[in-house]
Design goal:
One of its GO terms (cellular component) is SAM complex. It is found in: Mitochondrion outer membrane. Keywords: Acetylation, Membrane, Mitochondrion, Mitochondrion outer membrane, Protein transport, Transport. This protein is mainly alpha-helical and 267 residues long. The relative contact order is 0.14. A hairpin with a 2-residue loop joins strand 3 and strand 4. It has a 4-stranded mixed β-sheet, with helices on one face. It has a single domain, classed as Glutathione S-transferase Yfyf (Class Pi), Chain A, domain 2 (Up-down Bundle), CATH 1.20.1050. Helix 9 packs across helix 11. It contains 11 helices and 4 strands.
């Protein structure tokens, strides 16, 4: 029952599963994984990052990342936040009802705008699809399976884009959405260290996961990362969280190590 779960301490061998870093993982999954890692770091709950080519098929929901804690498996940030809360760890307990509603609204904004834009770029922008997405997504598998799985995924994502009215958008319109989202986040953050002043919440973890990944991922052009770079308080925010929660931690949890040619924001 939930009471006994709550009483159990966080196990030493808690693990987070994601795809292979160097050759396989795509921007959107990398961002989602990094958001969960940041959240767990902020809660001071250690987790080992395990990279598996078949991570997507290991996840009960098909969603990534997922954590394996004791005998339980939980995927994606929202459910992981709830799971961790049931174990007695929360970053947002100090917020009042109005702030909690506001935090939720901004998290929805990030998921509806940034995550959707990442998926659009990966699976609907033809040049990116051909040069980055298909080769990376299919990389663990032999031909023709690599292509079949990539096309299946592409079909699934494009169907979702149709359903939410994004299929007809141009890349320019999508980048404009990203800019609007960053503008709203930048306004809300202002000069504070975190979105709700002194302490980070799951919103900070989510924003960090997406913005840091956008800033450090090499794509065909820099158009996406340029949108984020226009907001100096957002890049400073990413740097702050990188330094505070990831640098100097054991190499295993450091996604910064050997990430890409644009690796660190500090240069």
């Amino acid at each position: 029952s939930s009471l006994s779960t709550a009483a159990e301490p966080w196990p030493e061998n808690a693990a987070l599963y994601q795809q292979l870093k160097e050759e396989q993982i795509l921007l959107s999954d990398n961002a989602s994984s990094l958001a969960v890692q940041a959240f767990l770091q902020m809660c001071n709950l250690p987790v080992r990052v395990i990279c598996r080519a078949n991570a997507e098929y290991m996840s009960p929901s098909g969603k990534l990342p997922f954590i394996h804690v004791g005998n339980q498996v939980v995927s994606e940030l929202g459910p992981i936040v709830q799971f961790v809360k049931a174990k007695g760890h929360s970053l947002s307990d100090g917020l009042d009802e109005v702030q909690k509603a506001e935090m939720k609204a901004y998290m929805e904004l990030v998921n509806n705008m940034l995550l959707t834009a990442e998926l659009y770029l990966q699976w609907c922008d033809d040049v990116t699809v051909e040069e980055i997405t298909h080769p990376r997504y299919g990389s663990p598998y032999p031909w023709p399976l690599n292509r079949i799985l990539s096309y299946q995924k592409q079909w699934e994502v494009r169907r979702k884009m149709k359903a939410i009215g994004w299929a007809g958008k141009t890349l320019e319109q999508v980048l404009e959405d990203v800019d609007q989202c960053c503008h709203a986040l930048s306004q809300r953050l202002g000069t504070q260290p975190y979105f709700f002043n002194k302490q980070p919440t799951e919103l900070d973890a989510l924003v960090f996961g997406h913005l840091f990944t956008i800033l450090t991922t090499q794509l065909i052009t820099d158009e996406l990362s340029e949108k984020v770079k226009n907001y100096s308080n957002l890049t400073a925010f990413c740097r702050r969280i990188e330094q505070q929660y990831f640098e100097g931690h054991e190499k295993d949890s450091s996604m910064i190590a050997a990430r890409s040619s644009k690796r660190s924001l500090l240069r």
